[in-house]
Recover the amino acids of this structure.
């Protein structure tokens, strides 16, 4: 990916992370860097760790590049609205479909899910568009 794309991705992540941290979910972790780039966000839920970097994410020790994600699936607005007011107390899953056929299911509390589901979908699309150029 080019540096302009990395900057665009980083800005999107930083906006989402500000909201998550503001509401008490996770923390900023700019002191960690690996092949996924500088870590911008860290969250732990039910014993699973989630790191979000400029080029990908790490879930439970598995590193996943955005460019390797072919599809992101999560509950629809209709499904969420059927949960009613209890939705905010539920854990919701985000499922990543990778180009190699692997599927990864991540579970988050609803407030984290609502921000990350949209963000991961956008990042996968950005990476896909970059691949097509």
């Amino acid at each position: 990916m080019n540096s302009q794309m990395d900057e665009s991705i980083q800005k999107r992540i930083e906006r989402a992370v500000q909201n998550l941290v503001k509401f008490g979910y996770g923390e900023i972790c700019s002191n960690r860097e690996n092949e996924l780039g500088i870590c911008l966000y860290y969250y732990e839920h039910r014993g699973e760790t989630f790191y979000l970097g400029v080029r990908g994410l790490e879930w439970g020790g598995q590193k996943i590049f955005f460019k390797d994600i072919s599809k992101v699936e999560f509950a629809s607005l209709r499904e969420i609205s059927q949960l009613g007011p209890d939705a905010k107390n539920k854990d919701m899953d985000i499922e990543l479909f990778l180009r190699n056929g692997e599927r990864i299911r991540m579970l988050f509390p609803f407030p984290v899910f609502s921000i990350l589901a949209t963000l991961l979908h956008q990042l996968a699309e950005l990476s896909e568009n970059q691949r097509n150029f």
Summary: The chain has one domain: 3-131. The beta strands are 33-34, 37-45, 48-53, 56-59, 62-65, 69-74, 91-98, 103-109.
